[in-house]
Specification:
Layout lengths: L8 H8 L12 H23 L2 H7 L2 H9 L1 H5 L3 H19 L7 E7 L8 E9 L2 E12 L2 E9 L4 E2 H9 L4 E3 L2 H29 L5 H28 L2 E3 L9 H12 L3 H13 L4 H14 L3 H13 L6 H12 L3 H15 L3 H13 L3 H15 L2 H14 L3 H13 L5 H6 L10 H7 L16
Antiparallel strand pairs: 1-2, 2-3, 3-4, 4-5, 6-7
Helix pairs in contact: 1-17, 2-3, 4-6, 8-9, 10-11, 11-12, 12-13, 13-14, 14-15, 15-16, 16-17, 16-18, 18-19, 19-21
């Protein structure tokens, strides 16, 4: 791997970290307020998905709008309240399942960005962190008469729309149009026959019992008779009122099984078997862009950059594409010293998906190696403006130094976090951001240091 040109990068970072550059300006005040409201709403909803209570997240999703677009306005309006409630729950549970953290992983909303606009919809980009992994998401937020709602959430790098995934989950025919009168007769007939059978049995026993015991007989027979009558009435009424019937079970997704096999083979280090399973998943209907993107990530992790590049190019060529593949191609170009290509890839990715601190930090390193300090400083300022809190800015500074290969500066940037009790060396070991300095003696020594003792509050003096 070619080394990065490090001259001047420390000075650029220090200059940029003296103050926050303005990310956007000159917008109308109403536009700023609208953007801030949308971002705040999306952040609260994300916190509900990550930490609860789930009701906050469920209530923020425009499940009616998602289903109206999938099924059609006329069909959605023709469903009963019971049927609508069932489908709403399906949408909300799917959204929540995708975003919910693994039980043992810490999670947080690390950053948020929104373009300055007063128009709906507003696209809010957010970075959701799960342990050392980051999920870049884009939330489509609408202002409605009842307040803000979430129309869709897109997992940016693989290019997956959760609303689109709900459509895949429901399948092409989640509803079947009913023939009301015929189905009502078909449902009522078995209950009617049961009712007649109860009456017939009661008449047979009545002929054999003394008259004084008839009241008890008819009282006993009336219980099942009423059950048949009420159940038959409700079944017939439901058939007449519900113009559509929900399918008994959601359709099978045949790519799920080879997808599980691919992930299992990947965990066990069987790359060829894993790739074969991924290709099988594509053959039986899995979305191609995300699959090729995942195959590229696995190949890159194994050090097979040529194979990874082919997978990422395939992921970008799909419709819809997996935008994260462009970022990964930029990282490969950076590692191989092709700085101009890396800049083009990363800038295209940012234009397509919106800013995020990790990509901006990488772009700053690229600009420094291309000898453009002004653009490097601009990228660092934009990244710093996204992360907000001071400890996050220190972490960002450390990550920029790590990407540039400067282990000593990385350690120096992380030292203040240890004093603030915000440093976890196990997380640092697992974070791929620090791979460029993984074998540097200063970094290895830092990771092997015992944790610093936590500061204790000063003892109070007695008067």
């Amino acid at each position: 791997m070619k080394g990065l040109r490090l001259r001047g990068i420390r000075g650029l970072i220090a200059a940029a970290l003296l103050g926050i550059g303005s990310v956007a300006g000159g917008q109308e005040s109403a536009s700023v307020v609208s953007a801030e409201e949308a971002a705040d709403f999306a952040r609260r909803s994300a916190m509900g998905a990550l930490h609860g209570p789930p009701k906050i997240f469920f209530d923020s999703i425009d499940a009616d709008g998602v289903l109206r677009r999938l099924l059609g306005r006329e069909v959605w309006g023709g469903l009963t309240r019971r049927q609508q409630d069932i489908l709403r729950a399906t949408v909300r549970e799917h959204f929540a399942e995708v975003l919910s953290p693994v039980f043992s992983a810490s999670s947080e909303v690390r950053w948020a960005w929104v373009p300055q606009t007063s128009e709906s919809p507003v696209f809010v980009s957010m970075g959701l962190h799960y342990g050392s992994a980051m999920l870049k998401t884009r939330w489509t937020v609408w202002r409605t008469p009842r307040g803000w709602t979430i129309e869709d959430i897109v997992l940016v790098d693989p290019g997956l729309s959760l609303a689109g995934e709900v459509g895949r989950l429901l399948g092409p025919r989640p509803l079947v149009r009913r023939e009301g009168s015929r189905e009502a007769r078909a449902r009522a007939l078995p209950r009617l026959l049961g009712l007649l059978a109860v009456i017939a049995i009661a008449l047979v026993f009545a002929r054999r019992l003394p008259r004084q015991r008839w009241p008890l007989l008819w009282l006993t027979a009336s219980v099942p008779a009423m059950l048949f009558l009420i159940d038959g009435t409700l079944a017939a009424r439901r058939a007449l009122n519900e113009r559509y019937a929900l399918v008994a079970a959601l359709p099978q997704q045949p790519w799920r099984e080879p997808e599980k096999v691919a992930l299992q083979e990947q965990r066990e280090g069987n790359r060829e078997a894993s790739r074969a399973a991924w290709e099988k998943a594509v053959e039986v209907g899995a979305p191609r862009g995300p699959v090729y993107y995942h195959m590229g990530l696995a190949a890159r992790a194994a050090g097979e950059n040529a194979e990874a590049s082919r997978d990422f190019e395939r992921a970008l060529a799909e419709d819809p594409p997996a935008p994260g593949a462009g970022k990964e191609l930029g990282l490969i170009a950076l590692a191989e010293g092709r700085y101009a290509d890396a800049r083009a890839r990363l800038e295209t990715y940012l234009q397509t998906t919106g800013p995020d601190p990790d990509t901006l930090a990488t772009l700053a390193v690229v600009e420094a190696n291309l000898g453009d300090p002004a653009r490097a400083v601009q990228a660092i300022e934009s990244a710093r403006a996204l992360v907000g809190e001071s400890w996050k800015k220190a972490e960002l500074e450390a990550q920029i130094y790590a990407r540039s290969g400067n282990a000593a500066a990385t350690v120096a940037a992380l030292r203040p976090l240890e004093v603030q009790n915000r440093l976890d060396r196990s997380d640092l070991r697992a974070d791929p951001v620090y791979l460029p300095i993984a074998t540097a003696p200063a970094w290895v020594a830092f990771l092997n240091e015992p944790p610093a003792p936590r500061p204790t509050p000063a003892a109070e003096t007695m008067p």
